[in-house]
Structure formats: C-alpha cells, structure tokens
C-alpha cells in the first residue's frame, strides 16, 4: 500500500501526493464549495481486440506449426496474449513431420552359440563373379559374432544353403539354432515353413537398422575387400574369392569389445602365421605336373585366397588361367602381378585401370546401403573361372581379339586341411556329375564344404625354418628316409601311372554357354565357332555393306552360344550363331507373314512305327545355318556383328539379302525354301501335317520329317534315300548324322525287337534344375489321395521356377505317357502356385528320378490295325466338377498318340462325360487314319475305339436318351455319323482292362504299373 499525503488549499483545491516521491496522484478543484475529481480516461486492453479464447494452440497454428517448444517460447518472451498455455497433440504435425525414430543400442546378448543367428543377403553384384555368383548370404552367430558366408547364383537358393548350414553347425556345436533374425525378405519365407521350430524374427519394412548386425557386417566385408582389391589391382570378377578370404580374416580380428570371434566360438587362439598378402606374387611347387624333368619346379602365380577344402593356398597362373591349390608355396608379398603386368590381363577388368574399369569401386561400396533390383541388364553370367572383362571390338579384318585359354584348377598331390573356417561356403544351383568338379573349390549343393565342422580340428602351418621370400606351408608329417639299397621303381626307372585325385583340370568354359561376346572371346573354342559362322555367312552372301539409310530402321545383332551334345551328354561341337535383334522390327514394314510349321510329335511316332515295322533305314540330317538359306522379300538393315566390324567401313550397316536367325520372317523363309526344294525333287506336302513330305517314286515310298533344321528321312528303298540325301546336300550345306539316334532331345536306341525312345538326358537336366537328382524315388507320379485346389496352402515363393519346371515336364511327356495326367493336373495351377502344388511337382520329379531311363518302345509288327482306348473321369475336379478325357491310340502294338485333358464343360452324367471323351478321341483317330492313308497304309477293318461305359457306346450308335442328351453340343454328335458310315467302330471293354484309365486319374501302385506296361513304358534292356 502506498502512503499518501493530503494537501488542502482552501477555496481552490486539494491534492493527494505520494508521501515518498511527492508525485501528484490526484487533485480536485473547488467549484461552488464542492471538490470535483476528474475521472481518468479508460484505456482499452489489446486482449479485447484479440478475444479471450486465444490459446497457445491458436498461436501454434498461426505460426505455421512450429515445434511446441518454439511456440511457447514466443508466447512467453514476447508477451503474446494467450489465455491457455496448453498445447494439444497436433495430428497435422504428426503426419507431416513423421520420421524415423532413433534406435537404441541393443542391451540383450546371447549366452551360448546359435541362440541367435543373424542373416542377410547381399546383391546382386554389379559384376558376376568368375564362378557365376551374383549374391552372397551371411550367417552371424550373435554369441561370438563368428561369420559364415555362402555364395549364390539366385536368391531362391537361400533355403538350400540354410539347410546345409543348419545341419553343419548343429552337428558341430551339439545344439540347435533357436532364433533366426533377418530383414524379412521373400527369400527367407520358405525357411519359416520348413523349420517352424526356429523362431524367425524379422525387421520392420524399410528398417534395416533392426538387422544392424548383418548390415554392419556387409559394410565391414565390402570395405576390407575393396581396399585389398585396390591394393593388388585385382580384377573385379574375383570378388567372391576375395570376399571369402576377407571373412576368413574378419573371424580372426578383434571385435568392438576386444574379443576375437574365432577364439570365442572355438575356445582356441587363431594362428596368424599362415596369412599372406592377397594378390601378391606366389610360387607354388608344380613339379608333379611337369611333363619332363627339365621343366621349372614352380610357376609365378597370383595368390587369390585360401582353400576351404584343402590345407593350401589358391594360386592363379595368369598365362594359362589355371588355379593351383598347393601347400608348397613361396611368396613375394611386395610384388603384385596384376599391378605390374597389365599386358597379361587385357581381358580382365582392373581396379585402378581407367580404360577397362567398367564398374567403379563406388558401386560395390554403394551396395552396402542400397538394394539393387532383382534383375540387371548389365549383369551377365560368366562361363568359367577365367577372367572376364571388357573386350574392344577389333577394327581390322574380321578377326577376334586373342584371349586367354579357359581356367583349370590344379591341386598338388599332397593335400591336407588348411584352416577350413567358413570363409567361403558356396551354393551352386547347378549340380555336377560325380566326375566333374567346379572350376574352384566352390561345390554343388550335394557336397557343400563342411568347414564349420573342421574349425576345432584345424592344423596350422609351422614355421620352423626360414626361406628367402616367405615360408611355404610344411608337410603334415615327415617320413624317415630309407637307408637300405632295396630295388624300387625309382631306382629301376619304372614309373607307376600317376593319378592325381585332387587335380581338377577338365572343367573348362566349354562346359558352360557364355552369355556375351566378351565372355566367349576369352576361349579358343568359341572364337573358332564364331569365325566359322562368319565364314558361312560370307560364303552365303548373306549381306552387303551399305551406308546407313536415314529413313529405315536399323536393327542390332548379338552372338548366341550353344553347346551341341550327343545322346550320352558328351560335347559334340560348339555352336556360335549370329542373331538379329528381331524385336526391333516393325510389323508391316520389316516383315509380314511369320508362321512356319514344325512336325507334330504324333507324326514322328507314326512314321517311326511304320519304319520299324517295315525295317526301313532311318537317317538323320542337320542343315548347317538353315535360316541363312531363306530369301528375304523385305529390305532389312542390320548393324555389323560384334568382333567383326570392317575397319575400312566401320559406320556401314548390313543390308540383308538372306534370312538370319532372330528375324521374325526367317523361319517362314527357310521353310518355304526347303519345301520348294523338296517339291522340285518329287515330294508333296502332307495335307494333315505340313512338315511331312512324301514321295511315291518308282513304287517306293520315301518320307521326310522336318523340324526347322533337323530332318528325318526314311523309305522303302535305301539307295533312293541316299540319292535324296545327295540332292539335298547339293542344295544346302548339311551334315549326314547317319542312323537316327538323338532327335529333339529324344534318345533313340535300337533294340532286338525295335527302337526305344526316351528323354533320360532331358529329364536329368530337369532334375538338375530342380536340385532333385538325388531325391528319394516315388512309386507313382501322383498320390491317390491328392486333392489340389487353387488356394489350398501358402503361396510358393518362386512361381517362375514352378512354371519353368512344368513347361519342361510337358515336353517330357513326348515319351512318357505315364506322367501325362499328373502334368496336366498340376499345369492347372501355374498362375498362383502354392506349396502344395510344388510338393505335387516334386513328387512327379521323384518318380522321374527313379524311372529316368524309361521310355516308349516301338516294335516291329505285321499287323498295323488301329486300336484306341478312351476313358473319362466324371466330375473328377473337386473345384469346378469338370471331367477329364483320356485316350491312347495304338498302331499295331505301338503307342503313337495319347492325351489327358480337362473337358471344357460340366457333364451331367458319367455317360455324357464318356460320350464327350469319345467325340474328342474320334477326331484324333480320324486324323491319324487320314495320315496313314497318305502314306498308303491301309487297314482291312475300321479302327476300333474301346470304351468302358455301355451308355456311351449305345449313345454313339443311336440317338437314345434324348431327354438327358438334348443339351449336348451338336459337334459332339459327329462321332455317331462316323460310326454309321462304318469309318470307325465303338466296342465295350471292362474297366479293369481300360488302358486309358491311367490318363484320367491317379492310380494305386499295382494298377499304375500294370497299365504302364501296357503303354509300353519300359527300360531299354527290357524292350
């Protein structure tokens, strides 16, 4: 309270003063004896204009949503009118400012090995390794942080790798994997289904930090590998070799808590004495491989890593591209051959070499933190362990740049286990036959390295003596020298034949088909094949070089490489084909009609059956560069071929005068050329199969079957057949392959009673692709209790593989009618396959694995009457209740046509289903009969169709059951007309004798085997 002082001035006024400051607080004038006090003017408050409801939330909105701290700071510091300082949760801020929350370090640690395993897949690599790998997967033990690395060709291989990794480590540590932590990628989904006992922890989408152990390990591997490769100037295609060695080293380096993973996991100290500088010069002892005693005892090589299956170093010999695995190696760790001898590696990508470095180091580095797409147009599969790189197209005459020979691997006679820690474990999607070994110590799935099992048993090299450069690894044991003078083979100069089981020298690039010119150009066989192709094109006047037109489409071209194999799988020849990029052609401008027929499989079996019965010779021809013989009616311009650019006219293009592989119209042009030639020789084209050509010259029948450039010729007169072959040879360049033995993937084997057709090699390739070569055999292709539907289980994670296998199996039915129904059934689920569908496919594959050499047998028979078996499984599909038609047609004793197919409509009764099947069978039967008539093979009696439904046989002969059949489509009744005209006849047969039963439903084992024998599906030696 303020102390005031009242001062009175009589008659005039009174004043109120502040007692301390003497300030006038109030004064009043005296008017007519009264003191009037003048009221102070009222000043309006600013809050009156802003409203009493102005809150901190309103200020937050006015200031365009700053943080709460900033809003309150402004309100307080600048005394902004505010009735409430409470800020509500702003949803707009939450949606607009959302970001990744900070991650806290994990405080949980495993207490024993395999309690928690971290895993992640890296890739695809921007460069495919020499061994064909694009990815790698790592498994990290959380307890010790020990790392295992496996290399992959496809992400889908993760399941197979994990199965082997799990078996190995669980056997080694006598415990099981409790938890697997991944990023939740689709490649890990099958693991959760196959191993439900393992807890599968996944990170949230787009949150790699939750899988930080694996992500950090990727970075660690990449950084050390890039530094190592840059230091030695190693080619980028050796990344898998270096990565495996880097993991080997990382397992022996102290981690952030100063513990060493190897020591923690195996409870023993690592030995660093055997480590050498990667990429340095090395000199492996090669005396056992020398041709004579005067050869040098060692070769100068490049040290590229440690072997996982042997106690030795991997040494690359640059001039020959051989890899030696040896324990007797001396090193010069200050010399780096790839850095000092660049002229020796012209076909290799270099680190630090600007002219050939197509993929910079930064690309590898960036892959640590970013995901690459599943496919990359710049990625090409290599074909060997040879160094692959960028080849500059020659600018002189059409000569291909010389390159190194293919890589071989050699391991010395003395082999022992080097430290086989899991520095490199490899999954190769392609199994090898037992006699083949891959071009490194990468192994196929059936024989993965068991490196984790060997860790506690590691025998490290000793260093009890010194060497001038660096010590070689000593031998495991030293045998005492002999002191007596006994006669030995050495003293007697008698040598026992040497066998080097560890010497791997037969797998070259020729076992693989290169994908690019760069890869093929590194190998002599493919260079010779390309030169032969260019010579053939030049001899055929396929094109002329002209200046590029301004108003025409210029299509590109590329090389396609194929290995032609014999029926036993051995290599016959190497085929390089120059292919035009026809997908750049415009319809109506660069091409018009494109259809070209090929011979039907049924036609092939009919002709072969006829030839076997008549004991005719069956010859096989192959036209060289068939498409090059076709004449083009359109103007087509193409760029010059890679590796064969004319140096005098490098900018010119090829004006094609002949058809070329890859052009849309090439198949049609070639077929027109061939058919014209055959017609000029007296053949006529069949009305029922345009690829069948028939000649009735001089009362002798000659038959030619054409499938693009593969030709089968047979006839009643062998000399006339040889004459036609000579005529064809004068018109085209072709090879006479002699007697028919291998045609369109079908092996034809002569037997005492006829010929046997099988696709054992083709089926082996299918099993190989599905990794089921060593699968347990199944007695039947489909279970009788199988009930498949569209959405009956979890979706299969690799539908592309599913469709590929099904497509291959469909072709396998050409000689395997026993799997026709099963393949037809499973083919109905190709759009969205599930795990149950894949299990059904694997059962078919397991059945084929046990019957791989089975096939149909065509035997000689004097009676060539036609007998047909027809059946239907009424409402056999549980989903749409449609029936399945099955039929098989016999020419004499030989099965020539069969089918299993779902009917297009629902049948109301079993009679209706059988009647529909009868009509479908009748159509195929008439076609076969007309084909035989063209071949002048006549039958004394009408063909017989055997049906096990009495109602269907009655309905086929008479229009009965009208009330129950009036809805059947008219076209199905044409069978009745054929019966009335006595072109065919329908007879009843007991269901127990119905052979077509195997084509309509899954059967029990005994019934299935019985009918398979009637289908003549047998082994060659039982035919």
Automatic annotation (TrEMBL):
Domain spans labelled Integrase catalytic: 109-278
Gene Ontology BP terms: DNA integration
Residue stretches of biased makeup (Polar residues): 450-469
Region (Disordered): 427-484
GO terms assigned for molecular function: nucleic acid binding
Taxonomic superkingdom: Eukaryota
Pfam families associated with the record: gag_pre-integrs (PF13976), rve (PF00665), RVT_2 (PF07727), SH3_retrovirus (PF25597)
InterPro entries on file: DNA/RNA_pol_sf, GAG-pre-integrase_dom, Integrase_cat-core, RNaseH-like_sf, RNaseH_sf, RVT_2, SH3_retrovirus
PANTHER family per record: GAG-POL-RELATED RETROTRANSPOSON, RLK (RECEPTOR-LIKE PROTEIN KINASE) 8, PUTATIVE-RELATED
Name the UniProt record assigns to this protein: Integrase catalytic domain-containing protein
Organism of this sequence: Rhynchospora pubera
